[in-house]
Write a structure and sequence with these properties.
Length: 416
């Protein structure tokens, strides 16, 4: 299972290169199913969610091989259209394969994704979008079966700007006959990257990054290569680690414009933040002050995925910081663990109030989910003593060599 032992209280100092983005690599791996030749994905993070996506591709009959930071996929040999229960459970976001499998084979069979650590993870919006495109959707024996001989362009108005439903709609629509207009689409940078990838395969898509995306169905071309964009949530995690522990770090291979809400919040808390085109420098003397409420919203709002690490950075800030979590119903599970480390946090529904404490202390704690686990790491770096973080497989889902990167900055972390 794996445990981190973190000796806190060391300032961070140095340069860290940020990994490729999990939430961009996964839809691109799914989209590689649409290519008729070989796709090479560079800067693909070495994390267990990507391993799970590679297993899904292999199960479907594709060739998928990792070589260092690059993953090559040849989907010309696809033989199946199902994702079995074990693989669905290994990665909750495997629903991202739904639209691509359907578009490629005419049928997709997935076991029902149950709830997840962040609350129920329904997929009704994904299914409604595919039904608009002409797919029939059945639920049988715990499986979802989507079938369509042909998909037909249509108007898809998403009730909320769901990231995954926008991606599934783009993937299916790009193989449909005619034009699809997706409104109230998610605007995350990962959606823009999916558009860029599909365009590199010959798709005709416009508008990603705005609420309206127009997709003209087409036949897909052969080989393509892409580079996964930098992970904005991993970058936010290193910044919050520096804010919590104190020190000064330079992050390279980042897109500062994707981090605007996070860098603004940390600046207001008292950190010094300077950016160039592809780097962010942050310094903190470890003394932070509370700021106005941090409210999670779809991009370009404050990202829900950065809420737990920002909360960890705010634990010792002078005053009270209020968090409002608007995206997921159960994203405060790390709070109970942070309380064990001496934090002062009260939660009520979607609101968490963090009253700054003078010091945090070590305790045995458990990762509850990916970003909640990262929050424990951030808190432990700013705490006194040796914190033991259990269940770190959650962290491995999304962070590539987190401990190695932090140790390179002077942190004292052992994986047992
Ligand atoms: N929702 C529905 N019905 C649906 C789809 C979504 O009610 O059919 C709800 C969800 O339950 C949630 C909200 O809509 O409350 C937003 O969900 P969304 O579909 O936007 O999220 P997602 O596509 O499942 C992606 C990221 C998450 C990130 C969210 C929000 C990937 C693989 N995952 O999830 O990343 O939190 O967008 O930005 O891209 C993470 O990296 O730690 C992570 C959880």
């Amino acid at each position: 299972m794996g445990v981190f032992i973190i000796n806190g209280g060391r300032r961070l100092d140095g340069v860290v290169r940020v990994q490729g983005a999990k939430n961009s690599a996964l839809p691109i791996l799914a989209a590689s199913l649409l290519a008729s030749g070989t796709t090479i994905i560079h800067n693909c993070p070495d994390i267990s969610d990507v391993d799970a996506a590679i297993k899904i591709l292999r199960h479907l009959g594709c060739m998928a091989v990792r070589d260092g930071d690059s993953v090559a996929v040849d989907s010309s040999s696809i033989t199946r259209c199902d994702i079995p229960d074990g693989l669905m459970r290994e990665m909750r976001s495997s629903v991202i394969f739904l639209g691509a499998i359907l578009a490629r084979t005419g049928q997709a069979i997935l076991s029902m994704p149950g709830g997840c650590e962040l609350g129920p993870r329904p997929i009704g919006i994904h299914l409604a979008a595919l039904a608009e495109l002409g797919a029939s959707v059945d639920e049988r024996n715990g499986n979802i079966i989507c079938t369509a001989d042909t998909l037909t362009g249509c108007c898809i108005n998403l009730p909320i700007p769901s990231v995954g439903a926008t991606e599934n709609s783009m993937l299916a629509a790009s193989c449909a006959d005619g034009t699809t207009i997706i409104t109230n689409a998610a605007c995350e940078p990962e959606i823009v990257e999916l558009q860029n990838f599909l365009v590199s395969l010959g798709a005709r898509i416009l508008g990603a990054g705005t609420p309206t995306i127009v997709v003209e169905g087409c036949k897909f071309g052969g080989n393509t290569e892409c580079r996964v964009l930098p992970d904005r949530i991993a970058a936010a995690t290193y910044m919050c680690a520096c804010a919590s522990a104190g020190g000064k770090i330079l992050m390279t291979d980042v897109c500062p414009e994707h981090l605007q809400t996070v860098t603004d919040a940390l600046s207001r808390m008292g950190c010094i933040v300077k950016t160039t085109k592809s780097s962010v420098f942050i310094s903190s003397d470890g003394y932070l002050k509370a700021i106005k409420p941090i409210i999670t919203r779809p991009y370009p709002g404050f990202p829900t995925d950065a809420q737990p690490v920002m909360m960890a950075a705010a634990l010792k800030a002078e005053g009270t910081t209020v968090f409002v979590e608007n995206i997921f119903s159960n994203r405060y599970r790390h709070v109970g663990e942070l309380l064990r480390m001496g934090a002062d946090i009260r939660t009520e529904g979607r609101v968490a109030m963090v009253s700054g404490v003078r010091r945090l202390h070590a305790a045995p704690v458990f990762s509850t989910d990916l970003r909640g686990g990262a929050a424990l790491v951030v808190a432990a770096l700013g705490a006194e003593g040796a914190t033991e973080i259990n269940e770190i497989h959650h962290i491995d889902r999304g962070y590539s060599n987190l401990e190695g990167r932090l140790c390179g900055l002077g942190a004292d972390i052992k994986r047992i």
